[in-house]
Amino acid sequence: MCQCGFMRDENQTGEIQFHFQPFSPILEVQMFIYVSFLLMYIGSLIGNATIFLTIWAVRSLHIPMYFFLANLAVLEIFYSSTVAPLALVNLLAMGKIPISFTGCGTQIFFFVFLGSADCILLGIMAYDRFVAIQDPLSYSLVMRWLLCAQLAVGALVLGFILALLLTLFIFHLPFCGHNRITHFYCDVLPVLRLACGDTQMPEAMIFITSVIILTIPFSLISISYIFIVATIKIRSAEGRHKAFSTCSSHLTVVLLQYGCCSLIYLRPSSSYNPEMGRVVSVVYTFVTPILNPLIYSMRNKELKDALNKFIQRTLIPYKN
């Protein structure tokens, strides 16, 4: 029988280390994946930073909708940066660079923390659109700046609490024997598969967390959009098109984020497929962060015009 300890096993004299499994044993394939990931990561940093700076610099965008979008852009930058740098290093090293027990726990914490806040914020943005479209005249009275700040902070606090609890549940388990993670970062389900203790409580916590950050916000988003479609009363075709363009941008991001996460986390842990999980994870760790700024900037004319003016003003110096 395996003799397991919290931080050590019988074959180790130091802290437990985890190794990531390469996508492919072929170096050329690894290099292709590395370049693809690197370009997506750089693109997400540039895109989200541009969205944030544009909203910060252009006064006409200083309204609650863009306040939440700026918060989402910042979250996406930190969220992708939690995963991408270590993943890129290990792609180059063919998975030979380990991550420590503490480092793995830290990565899971920030991944769940920022990912949870991201999903909750998308739910808040749906509520903001619902208020704006249902009763435009009282929008500024309902969505006060104090309330907006409280909602944004609330998303962070709830994400922090869920991440802390989930990380403690998982890393309180003993780990021993084979510590190779079939993934490109420390995710909750691949790491949980390596534990040699009773995993019922952590699995229950994963399910509860998934319901809180996926099912409940998505249900509220769906209800909000049902009411938006049912109650929209914008007379002009241009105004109606503007409202639906804004909502469709948000809905596209929601379907990408929630759809991929639900495939992984809203299912029994026993049915988890490591290879499928790794492929689907690429979408919400690398693809979605770069698509968010593209989707919002392409579908939202007001933001698109502001972006063009901001880029021209930044890159092209004024002439006297």
UniProtKB/TrEMBL annotation:
Topology class, membrane: Multi-pass membrane protein
Residue intervals passing through the bilayer: 31-58, 65-88, 108-127, 147-171, 204-232, 244-266, 278-296
A Pfam family: 7tm_4
Domain of life, per lineage: Eukaryota
Keyword entries, A-Z: Cell membrane, G-protein coupled receptor, Membrane, Olfaction, Receptor, Sensory transduction, Transducer, Transmembrane, Transmembrane helix
Keyword field contains Transmembrane helix: yes
Subcellular location: Cell membrane
Any one GO CC term of the record: plasma membrane
One function term, GO molecular function aspect: olfactory receptor activity
Residue ranges occupied by any G-protein coupled receptors family 1 profile domain in the UniProt entry: 47-296
InterPro entries: GPCR_Rhodpsn, GPCR_Rhodpsn_7TM, Olfact_rcpt
Protein family: Belongs to the G-protein coupled receptor 1 family.
PANTHER family given in the database record: OLFACTORY RECEPTOR
Protein name stated in the entry: Olfactory receptor
